[in-house]
Amino acid sequence: MNVVALLAFLYGGCLAQYSPQTLPGRTSIVHLFEWRWVDVAAECEHYLAAHGFGGVQISPPNEHIVLNNPWRPWWERYQPISYKLCSRSGNEEEFRDMVTRCNNVGVRIYADVVINHMCGASGGSGTHSACRTYFNAGAEDFPAVPYSSWDFNDGRCKTKSGNIENYNDINQVRDCRLVSLLDLALEKEYVQGKIAGYLNKLIDAGVAGFRVDASKHMWPGDMEAIFSQLKSLDTRWFSNGTKPFIYQEVIDLGGEAIKSAQYFGIGRVTEFKYSAKLGTVVRKWSGEKMAYLRNWGEGWAFMPSDRALVFVDNHDNQRGHGAGGASILTFWDSRLYKVAVAFMLAHPYGLTRVMSSFRWNRYFVNGKDLNDWMGPPSYSNGSTKAVTLNPDTTCGNGWVCEHRWRQIRNMVIFRNVVDGQPFGNWWDNGSNQIAFGRGTTGFIAINNDDWNMDVTLQTGLPAGTYCDVISGQREGDRCTGLRVIVAADGRASFQISNTAEDPMLAIHVDAKL
Ligand code: AAO
């Protein structure tokens, strides 16, 4: 191997942890929150592969606590009991089968890994865990790992409660308990080895990478010590020496001592400013206007695009957890949500993650949803309901399946088609009507004003008749929705009513008749 090739190999290798390792031309991942493994596998085979999804973020696959006060909250999954692969979503065999089947159709699996802590200090003792493994939270005894009280940070935390009390004290944030979750001593080689062993077991099963939960609460040096022990990805699906994709959950909206940038050396980082700001702009709150999106991305003081994992909402902030400000748009606000998701998928900034949720019966008291804890659609015995499919391809049994909404699915494809193409041909009306293109391959126009949009714009696209992929798509030689005619000079007229179901038009070269 000559020097240039060696350097390219090393460069590629050392940057691999920023790449989702998806098949070429697949640019988004979907979070199938709380889905069972058998349903994820079927979705990979019957939907995600065919519609260009790059991969799936799954809920934590390790054994977690089982709670009944409240009854089976979704957040059981964030209270580990062991690193056995059994959980609300299924057992190890189902997990391995899912990863194999998804990889076999070119859809990657990213595991949500909870490695900062074990269960809550008040988790009690017994076998109320997904695999009925014995543990004793009070004694910090998790025999299935094994972890004992030696393996927790109690000695290092200086707060009276043992919990984080001040997010501006770096030592508290990293060495004290997050909401009383037993904080592992990640600086210990023994603990690092146990966690690396768990992650390598997932790599052996074929996962492509990890969403690292609560990264803000771990010292970057300890995380690097763990990740340096990770194997390369499984050569059944990945080229030899490929490193796992790493994206770290760090809530940094500014104003705290810990910054996202402290984690850039390890992998990508969630950009929560994106989610909070886009919600504010699309809701037209605080004087924000769509016209201000002209310099969206680093121009808004977000992290560099090649370090950012972006989303309109996530499983926390769609229900007021984490950085769950009121501006966050979710499936509950479906019309504006589709505007925000379409914008995110059309704009080049960041690696995009689409949320796929379940419904729960929200119950607001003084602006707070008292049912924010409610778990996935379940039977009376607590087992999670199957994802059923309706004839119109939507989901039943309480699963929202935003990723299957035509407008969102088609914009996932739009992003694949325009991948690598420059942002340009920006137009706005100084208010909330905007439009922009992606080189010569795609163009989107959005009307978020309270009056009609009627303009003729330079799209940058080749002349022809295009199917609008918001109101429909191209099927053979016909459009199932609206059409847009691009003239020889690249210009096209966009009439968008402010009362339209979806006040957007989006076209790309794969939707051209
Ligand atoms: C549950 C119960 C607790 C109980 C605990 C143990 O709710 O009462 O003590 O069990 O028995 C999830 C749930 C938790 C649940 C936990 C364990 O959300 O309610 O606790 O499972 O079952 C912080 C972390 C962040 C974390 C977020 C929820 O930094 O990593 O809290 N997210 C991840 C997961 C999440 C999970 C865990 C971590 C735990 O995504 O699902 O928790 O594994 C500030 C800080 C943030 C901090 C938030 C919330 O954010 O900056 O770092 O997130 O506070 O504490 C504005 C500010 C923004 C601020 C925000 C909220 O937006 O700009 O900075 O307000 O104050």
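^ acarbose derived hexasaccharide complex. Residues 189-205 form the longest helix (17 residues). The pocket of acarbose derived hexasaccharide is lined by residues 75, 78-79, 114, 120, 122, 167, 178-181, 213-214, 216, 249, 251, 253, 256, 316, 321-323, 325 (CB under 6 Å).
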